[in-house]
Amino acid sequence: MTWLGAVPTWCWWLIAMVLVAGGQEIRVEAGKSEASAARMEKAKADKDLSDYRLEVSERDRRAAAQARQEEQRRQAVADEEGEDARKKLELAQDRAAAAESAAGGLRGEIARLRAGHRATCDTIAAQQRQAGTSAVVVLGGLLEESDRMAGSCAAALERSRIAGLACEYVYDALVHKDNAFK
Q1: CB burial readout 104-120, b (16+ within 10 A) else e
Q2: Distance between CA atoms of 32 and 30, rounded to whole angstroms?
Q3: Full-model pTM
Q4: Are 77 and 170 contacting, i.e. CB atoms less than 8 angstroms apart?
Q5: Burial readout 51-62 (b: 16 or more C-beta within 10 A, e: otherwise)
Q6: Dist. CA 148–CA 134, nearest whole Å
Q7: Which residues contact 92 (CB under 8 A, 6 or more apart)?
Q8: How far apart are CA 37 and CA 182, in angstroms?
Q9: CB under 8 Å to 103, separation ≥6 — which residues?
Q10: CA distances for 122 relative to 116, 119, 156, angstroms
Q11: What are the two backbone dihedrals, phi and then psi, of residue 124, each rounded to the nearest 5 degrees?
């Protein structure tokens, strides 16, 4: 019998159990360390994700602020030019009213000249008077009508010119400013 046979069977079982328990203990400890490493890696990934979200939200906030600033700048340019155009239109309307007033004075003068012409023509022969009167009346009517039409055309053209220039200025200001950002 060898020394191995001298050891009772129950001891062999006990040794086997101790070895199995020790192996299991080693596996459990290895699992714990792997779980701890995984938790640390997850915590690092969570922190990285949180940092990334913070960075993205900050970038979005800055982009929104820049977009608001650009929109306000554009609106300010448009408002400024609109106000300038409104002032120019008011000035053009004032000028048109002054021109209409002057035209009214001219029409009054034409009417006075017609009346004076009639009074002086009473002494001239009937044939001459009719020919002269009709020419003065026709020319006076044409002058009045052309003066009215010229005034309304000038006012319309001035309004159109001012509106077109205002629109052009706003477009140029926005396009040139936008190209400066690119």
Answers
A1: eeeeeebeeebeebeee
A2: 5
A3: 0.48
A4: yes
A5: eeeeeeeeeeee
A6: 21
A7: 155, 158, 159, 162
A8: 48
A9: 147, 148, 151
A10: 10, 6, 43
A11: -90, 165
Tokens 């792997």, residue? 34
Note down pLDDT in tens along the chain; length 182 residues: 576 677 788 888 898 999 999 899 999 999 999 999 999 999 999 999 999 999 999 999 999 999 999 899 888 888 888 888 888 888 888 887 887 787 777 777 777 776 766 666 555 555 555 555 566 677 777 777 887 788 788 878 888 888 888 888 888 877 776 555 44
Q: How many residues does the chain have?
A: 182
